[in-house]
Amino acid sequence: MSDVTLPASLQGVEPVKAIRTPATLNYIYSAGRASSHFLHRVAEKRLVGQRCPACRKVYVPPRGSCPTDGVAMDEEVELGHSGTITSFCVVNVPFMGTLMEIPYTSALILLDGSDIPIMHLIQEVAVTDVHSGMRVEAVWVPDEEVGPTLESIKYFRPTGEPDADFATYKDNV
User: Fold this and answer.
1) Phi and psi dihedrals of 166, rounded to 5?
2) Taking 70 as the threshold, does the pLDDT of residue 67 lie above it?
3) Rounded to whole angstroms, what are the CA distances from 145 to 75, 97, 132?
4) Which of 24, 34, 141, 157 could connect to 124 by a Cys-Cys bridge, CB 3.0–4.6 Å?
5) Are 172 and 117 in contact (CB under 8 A)?
6) Full-model pTM
């Protein structure tokens, strides 16, 4: 802004850096058949994926068709509630609307039986101790709060098992 000349009435006035104004966005989301089925299983405290008949990869959440092969997927695969952290991020910067205490860890978790990781929170462990290969398990909200949403899983926590061998998750790093 050094090459911009301000009118005399604005000389010495502090520049505007941000404006807060109420904003709303109303929308309707339709999860679709595969995602709806997945979310209804979550409401039963079950995690399921779908296996591609061509490449044999298990996708979670299910997509209905394989993004690689473009073929329909209808084979349901029951997945475990445990998995392996493939990568993670420690969040140190607060943002508007955050409910988490800073710092916290968000991680990609390769659920047992799946070929594609899901993102979720890691708790009950110091952020400095979270690492790739760590074995974790789902912690569910109380039964009366469980519904068709991934928020039914409160977070994942360490299982205490030995770390997974890198070869078992190297394709998901």
Assistant:
1) -55, -35
2) yes
3) 29, 21, 30
4) 157
5) yes
6) 0.81
C-beta separation of 95 from 106 below 8 A: no
d(CA 167, CA 65): 27
Which whole-number Å values give the CA distances from 169 to 42, 110, 120, in the listed order?
24, 7, 17
Instruction: Establish if 3 belongs to a structural domain.
Output: no
**What are the structure tokens assigned to 42, written together?**
């979550």
Does residue 16 lie in a domain region?
Answer: no
Q: Is residue 2 assigned to a domain?
A: no
How many of the other CB atoms lie within 10 Å of CB of 32?
12
Q: 130: domain range?
A: 32-172
Q: How many CA atoms lie within 13 A of 165 on its CB side?
A: 2
The answer as to whether 8 is a domain residue is no
When divided into structural domains, the chain yields a total of: 1
CB of 58 closer than 8 Å to CB of 83: no
